[in-house]
Amino acid sequence: MHRLLLLLLTSLALLTLRMDSGAGALRATHPALAALPAELVWAWERPEDLRWLPLDVGVAYVASSVLLQGEDARVYRRASALLLAAGAARVPVLHVDMSWRRPPALSEAQSRRVADELLRLAAQANRKVVQLDFEVRRSQRPFLARTIGAIRARLDPSIALSVTALASWCLDDYWLHDIAADEVVPMAFRMGPAQHALRARLLHQGGFTRARCGAAIGFSSDEPMMAVREGRRYYFSPQAWSAARWQALRSTPRSTIPSR
To answer: What are the boundaries of the signal sequence (predicted)?
Structure first.
């Protein structure tokens, strides 16, 4: 009996070690994320009729936007129509913009306003997952990290916090190792002047290999798809979604990992 217990404890320790260390390792999955569909489309702030979408595909939709400028944090609630089938998995997204004309103060009040709005959106999440879409400059990263930490500390433990990330944040410019999110979604599109080299690298690696970046990935419908290891896929479209656009995306062959 004691030997059996020791064996079970050892197996559990090895499993935990695998999940928390090494390139491409995945941390323990939040129960709400484990129950989320493997594929979701992003519905941006524009009219979208997604009632045709298969029920095994979820929708991460911009529910609110926050503009940070100067000392202000202006909240804009979704104004565009969003039509979904009954029972569709809904992930509310809070999109945050930084003003370039009036750089934000990055104050505690602004961080709290972002957190307040995301917590409000959590009530709309029928699958207990909310997402923060927030791109920042290098100097603004501490503010983003603090804000994510404040959100996670206040959010009900049963609700998972997903955050989007630039592809570079999950490659050589990796800084997300201590981020308090439950899911990081690196966006493998619009990757800038070096995008061809980055795509080749991702194909060679089989996706993002950093520990916090290996569980999900974001693609765009107007850029080639990649065959990668990531489990959950989010799809962005620069134009309104349609059944024809979705079918075209699904039927497009994925670029595959080159043979070694």
So the answer is: 1-23
Closest residue by Cα to residue 201 from 148, 255, 132: 255
pTM for this entry: 0.85
Residues 5-37 pLDDT 10s: 433 433 333 333 333 333 333 445 899 999 999
> Concatenated DSSP letters for 194-241?
THHHHHHHHHHHTS--SGGGSSEEEEETTS--B----SEEEEE-SS--
Tell me the domains of the chain and their CATH numbers: 31-251 (3.20.20.80)
Q: What is the largest CA-CA distance in the chain?
A: 69
Residue with tokens 């989007």: 164
